[in-house]
Amino acid sequence: MGMTNPWDSPITIELTRHHDCTRPGRASLARSASLRPAQRLRLRPGAYVNAAQWRTLFPSQAHRVRVIAALQCGDLHEGAALARESAAVMHGIPVLGALPDQVQLIRPGRRGGRLTPTTRTLTAPAGVALGLIGSVSATTPAQTLVDLARRRDLRTVLPGIDFALRTGMTSKAEMLDLLATQRSRAGNAMARHAIEHGDERSESPGESLSRAVMIDNAIPLPDLQHTVISTQGEIVGRVDFVWWDGGFRG
């Protein structure tokens, strides 16, 4: 699931500033977005994409395009850092469920939040862990997952936690240390529950989602990734889940 360069947009972003205002090009972008059916989609002031191409994108790809457009239009400057779902998408961490239309940002040292049609700026917790994605400031994978796990249900965040553990992006210890240093934050107990159930052996978002459903419904958890060997000593196959208490002896 990794990306060679997260800042390469999967579809072309057309910026009005690249069109000479004395020519019809700039006005034609706006007109093409007002047609029925529209030829272009206005992502934000100054940025358009091909409407047909936009409809082919997965939700994570569409959100990545929004983040890249925000960078190209200057929203990721002046101390802003990507956070929550936006940071996860740009780190390549899977997030199941709905993604916000606004690019999620924090501005460390600034109190209060700010919401616009294209960005949502949040209050940064004390001691927030920041790094870089390319040259853009963003919460670290550990901080990103902690922030998501504080507010999203287990089924949408466990795939990301498992992925980050499996790929070595972070560790349970790093995430739990952040919880310990960022005390009294709403959702810390929920985040701890999700982190403690993370398992680096889970190999796909679907497997992680299945385990989250089991956890939510108090179903006994299976052992993961077991190779089944026949009585003749030959490998029969490999299963994602096995419940030893069910009598399996493979």
Architecture blueprint of SSEs:
Elements: E1 13-15, H1 24-34, E2 40-44, E3 47-50, H2 51-55, H3 59-72, E4 81-82, H4 84-91, E5 103-106, E6 114-115, E7 119-122, E8 130-133, E9 136-139, H5 141-149, H6 154-167, H7 172-181, H8 188-196, H9 205-216, E10 223-229, E11 235-242
Parallel strand pairs: 5-7
Antiparallel strand pairs: 1-3, 2-3, 4-5, 6-7, 8-9, 10-11
Order of helix and strand elements from N to C terminus: EHEEHHEHEEEEEHHHHHEE
Class per helix and strand makeup: alpha+beta
Number of helices: 9
What integer is the average pLDDT? 89
Cα-atom Rg, whole angstroms? 22 Å
Categorize the overall geometry. globular
Spatial sequence of strands, sheet with the most strands: 4-5-7-6
- Extract low-pLDDT stretches: none
Spatial gap, N to C terminus: 31 Å
Main sheet characteristics = 4 strands, mixed
Molecular structure report:
With 250 residues, this protein is α+β, with helices and mostly antiparallel strands. It has a domain at 222-250. The chain has nine helices and eleven strands. The strands form four sheets. A four-stranded mixed β-sheet has the order 4-5-7-6. Strands 1-3-2 form a three-stranded antiparallel β-sheet, sandwiched between helices. Helix 4 (84-91) crosses helix 5 (141-149), helix 5 crosses helix 8 (188-196) and helix 6 (154-167) packs across helix 9 (205-216). It starts with 12 loop residues before the first strand and ends in an 8-residue tail after the last strand. The mean pLDDT is 89. It comes from Actinomyces howellii. This is AbiEi antitoxin C-terminal domain-containing protein.
